[in-house]
Structure prediction request, 503 residues.
Amino acid sequence: MTPRKVRVRFAPSPTGPLHIGGVRTALYNYLFAKKHHGDFILRIEDTDSQRFVPGAEKYIVETFEWLNIKFDEGVHIGGKYAPYRQSERKDLYKKQVDKLIEKGAAYYAFDTPDELEQKRREIANFQYDASTRMHMRNSLTLPDEEVQKLINENHYVVRFKIDPGKDIEVQDLIRGEVVINSSVLDDKVLYKSADRLPTYHLANVVDDLSMEITHVIRGEEWLPSAPLHVLLYRAFEKEEAMPRFAHLPLLLKPDGNGKLSKRDGDRLGFPVFPLNWENSDGEIYPGYREAGYLPEAVVNFLALLGWNPGTDRELFSMNELIDAFSLEHCSKSGAKFNYEKGKWFNHQYIQLKGNDEITKMFLPILKEKGITVSEPMVEKVVALVKDRVNFINELWDQSSFFFRVPDSYDEKAVSKRWRSDSSVQLTGLSEILASVDDFSSENTENIVKQWINDKGYHSGNIMNAFRLALVGALKGPHLFDITAVLGKEETIRRIKHATEVLK
Ligand code: GLU
Prediction:
């Protein structure tokens, strides 16, 4: 048998903004697909009409566009196995559920919610299964005529008839093998006549078969879903076409205690969603994109939350991730969500990007501040300060003094560093600066140092006062790198301004 082409899918339910854990699941599927020259598919599992949230699908598509994670087929681009939205595949599920009924693998059930509630009260740990189904209202217990009548009335569900007392073996590429007994499973509802929609389990299995999915790489807890799905493949007599499973480690809270939740993000101050999301009450859930993350950093960060390359290496481009990725190197145990590491990655990617690229991202921020300066000037500034920031928007804090004259001078620094003779000395300095032709950092520095020497001044005193005059505080990059960017005129202007204000 020739091996099948690898086909994997990301199959989110559009019930709200995609969680960052879902993004990781999609990323691992993508890396696996590309590593094996396979296909990556986006399928929308919108069979739960109660939980459907408008806009969620668009959000999902936008997320992967931002992250540069590309699908080969999907709800937004079509493909050979279309449609990719489950609500548009109703006929297929109906056909398959009928097949299961015909085979005796599933049956109609008519119990009302009240009747089920009643049973739950009567019987401790009630489960709809082999031990109880014969006491319920379904096609196994009611006379044929009544069954037909109830089906015609369209008030039924279809339940999976689980054979009790059988060991089900599940192979998982990450977790290994697990055996669970079918008696722990209930007769899951597979289909509801009310909305003509299948439930998650049936739709998921039918679609994975019909879309010829070879590997199911999932983020959710794998029990008891995976064994149930194995039984469904068997019921369809499609075990040979069953995808291989790989259940990813859970994403844990930063302290490792339990699953990462939306509330952890609020509580600890970091996003757990890829993009900003506004819910129907106008509440904003913060996203990585809007928080100033570069998509490459998010991808690299997520890739290492549950997978490792087997070495200490941490920085990987997308193509390098594709090369290095393997399910064997995914861990079984949960991965702690170390948000600080996310910042570190962003810092690294800012350093790796060209100054021109960072400049392009910084320009809109400057524009918003009302600053109009030439792009080459901004690029010089970026080169000087980018190693001090984790996020693009921090560039402003590190560099605002390049773009406007200090409107105040740090008081503490002034009282400590602006001496009675500073004004006179700096006025002398500006005369020297006025005579400098080559205002490059190196040349200016040499000339100023020579002048300080000749005068017998204390270098520290001059430099601190000079920095205060230019920056307004005792911070910033190398002083003569600053003067080189400001230029001669502006440097002299700032000295004059400071000596007037600080007298
Ligand atoms: N729609 C399911 C979910 O979002 C998909 C699970 C799967 O990958 O099979 O949880």
